[in-house]
Amino acid sequence: MAVVEIFLASFLKVLLNRLTDDFLNFARQGGIDKKLKKWKDMLAAIGAVLHDAEEKQLTSEAVKLWLDDLKDLAYDVEDVLDEFSTEMIHRKVKEQQYGATMSKVRGFIPKIRFSFNFNSKIKLITDQLQDISERKDKLGLTYIGTISTSKEWLRPPSSCVLGGTPVVGRDVDKAKIVEFLSRDEPSTINFHVVAIVGMPGLGKTTLAQYIFNDSDDDVLKQFNLKVWVSVSDNFNIVRVTKQFLNQSRPNTVNGRNSVKFKMA
């Protein structure tokens, strides 16, 4: 496998692993589950011809352009899924806050309504995926295999522990995120979500670790409790909630993050 093929194959598998049944069921509440299911089918079909495309791009400029367009589109898909995951977390946590009274108030929780801008993104990406898929057929790219969604392709869980290499050039980004975290805006729920999105390799996790481990920032000192939970590609609200609760208890030691928490 060439570098481009390995990157795209791995990236598409990450995207496919995010489109779980739980994810699609939640999308059904907003009326976009059929589009996301279509994304899943098209991404799997596109991924199956990557090996053939990698070989043919050496002699075909059209195939090379197809691969470039696919890479750009994959980044856009990831950004939309990140945005959707943020809304999903908001909704899940809000429902859990009602607890035992959920059955009484369920009817008062509004149905998910995505903004016009978000729905426009969904439609645009659906059209672009359809175009990529049709160009695949016109270019005569053949199916060599299919993308597996097995767990070995999932990204390993991240840790709050910052590596030994100094972080440079991220102070502006850090300041912006800290500003978001410190905003005191009226809300129906008692938490804020700040999403850090971008293409793979930009250092999103490193930036989050940099902020998490800063013990000198006056704003960050206001947070009495800091917990790091790796959400991973296969989002599971029950698992994430359990990990959060476990690490929130000083007497619980379960993994590197909780050890760091206990020692702090």
UniProtKB/TrEMBL annotation:
InterPro entries in the cross-refs:
NB-ARC, P-loop_NTPase, RX-like_CC, Rx_N
Q: Locate the Disease resistance N-terminal domain: which residues? A: 8-96
> SUPFAM superfamilies, per this entry?
P-loop containing nucleoside triphosphate hydrolases
User: One biological-process term from Gene Ontology?
Assistant: defense response
| Residue stretches making up the NB-ARC domain | 173-247
For molecular function, the Gene Ontology terms on record are: ADP binding; hydrolase activity
> Which key words tag this protein in UniProt?
Hydrolase, Nucleotide-binding, Plant defense, Repeat
Give one Pfam hit by family name: Rx_N
Residue ranges of coiled coil: none
| Gene3D superfamilies for this protein | 1.20.5.4130, P-loop containing nucleotide triphosphate hydrolases
Q: Does the keyword Repeat apply?
A: yes
Has keyword Repeat?
yes
Q: Which PANTHER family match?
A: DISEASE RESISTANCE PROTEIN RGA2-LIKE, TRANSLOCASE OF INNER MITOCHONDRIAL MEMBRANE 13 HOMOLOG
| Protein name according to UniProt | Putative P-loop containing nucleoside triphosphate hydrolase
Species per Swiss-Prot/TrEMBL record: Rosa chinensis (China rose)
Q: Which taxonomic lineage is given here?
A: Eukaryota, Viridiplantae, Streptophyta, Embryophyta, Tracheophyta
